[in-house]
Specification:
The protein is mainly α. It has helices at about 5-20, 25-110, 125-140, 145-150, 160-170.
Amino acid sequence: MIDLGLSKLAIIGVVALIVIGPEKLPKVARMAGTLYGRAQRYLHDVKSEVSREIELDELRNLHKEVQDRAQSFKDEVQSAKNDFESNVTSHVDEVEALWDGGNAHENASTSASSSSGYGTPTLEDIDRKAKDFRRKKLVRTSAVPAWYKNRHGTKRHVMSGAARVRKFRPGSGAKSNSSFF
């Protein structure tokens, strides 16, 4: 802007005092101050509008670039998907052809009376699987691992008081008619 030093401002003030006069000088100074403020606000508004337009233009360019990249990525994914589907379809066709050929060969070489264990499960199989499931669930949910219990000889089963008395009663192995006393 204009470089106004103290000496230049003093000269302008003296000239204004002589030209305008001492009576109108305060009104003119007030008017000059408001006009100067309006001019500053106007310049600030113009600068902010220009910068906003520049940022908006940059955002539009960025949005267009992102849209182009997204579209190219979408096209690449679509082409990869199509390639994958064609490969999978060709492999499935090959497997089905081999399976059909293998089944025809197997049916010709084996008899129809094959009783493998792949049919419906029997009641014994269901009971065995349920027992294994319960046992494995108990092992999974117990607080202390079974190997630790086995190693340190801790109790693995809950025992009632009467069962403990019977287990540890002296002479429980041979029943005698004699009393304890």
